[in-house]
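Recap from last week: sequence in, structure out.
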Amino acid sequence: MPTKKKVFILDTNVILHDSSCLYNFQEHDIIMPITVLEELDNFKKGQQIINYHARQFVRYLDELSSDKLFNGGMKIGPDNGKIAIRLEKEMHKDLVLSFPGQDKPDHRILNIAYHLREEFTNKLVVLVSKDVNLRMKARAVGLMCEDYTTDHVREPGKVYTGCHVQSGVSSECIEKLFAAEGEAARELYAPAETLYNNEYLILKNGKKSALAVYKKETDSIRRINKASVFGISPRNAEQSFAVHALLDKTIPLVTITGKAGTGKTLLALATALETRKNYHQILLTRPIVPLSNKDIGYLPGDINSKIRPYMQPLYDNLGVIRGQFSENSETCRRLQKMLDDEKLMIEPLAYIRGRSLVKKYMIVDEAQNLTPHEVKTIITRAGEGTKIVFTGDIHQIDHPYLDSNSNGLSTLIDKMQGQSLYAHIDLQKGERSELAELASNLL
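Predicted structure tokens:
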């Protein structure tokens, strides 16, 4: 039996998330309420990623533009359906009591979707929105609705951790790793599961154990030694793996995930300072996700006073590193000079966009609040000799339209695992304090 053709009604937030979304609905048709076009007009100006998506989508529409957009629709592509724009309609009698008035854009979009369901009796009408509230309202009035999931990770709930624990490893394998070469053939390890390139291993044989990393080019595992960076020493196996990846010059892209207090940003910053001679500049940045999703222009004060509260966690990590040394020490003076000479910079991610990054050590904190397109934009700015480190907790998201399956950090881990230029490690144990770890686990 042939599949029933669908008609997708797009909400504004889908377009602001992915301007190329109209090419991702295969042979099905797309209808865009005029309200969405009006909302896009409000987002055209600005330098944020949502402003880029608003402008780009309107350009796509302009390329297809003709009077057919308002009269039956225009073909999107040879393998795609049609796209059409629908004008406002009077609020449907079934919705008047629950959604009086048409002052809310969401209600106008819902109204168009409800009318279209009655019009297209031979097709499935589906409202697509990243707004959970709107999806709940749609279901309440009997409309089919769904999230935009094109860029979701392939296997939700099975995020790559970058680390594998194996018990019962042969004594010969452990002995080989602790020999002078510090390397063993993969056959000696004989893992039950497939290994990814640059995947880290905790190998156990009774009371003996070893830390190692798998290298695909030699099909072997190599011993990992614990290393301190700028006075900061790893406190567990996963932190040792993170430091190893951060120090490895052959791996220009690293992601570190973990809950609060696991040492993600601290280790990344300490390693950057340890290897500072290899780079022209160290950049620490994070996305600004303001309260109520309002632009920071709403806040009082000059630009520095506006952004300082959002950047403070990065300054706190720098303070931990500086706190190991006396204020009059040469190391503290050197750190201050790096700040003064802008060799070490802490600034919002919006200030980085558009720049070329050559021989930079870039740390992007709170990367779970980035969209997949934003992550791609950052990485494609990397020039020769640049290392980019993304840190974050994929389960602690402040962005209103992202979740653990659709954020840029999860997508990056899902798509990059196994690549020779990439390494990932998920930090499991909180090391901030015993109290912080207890609260994280129990509350």
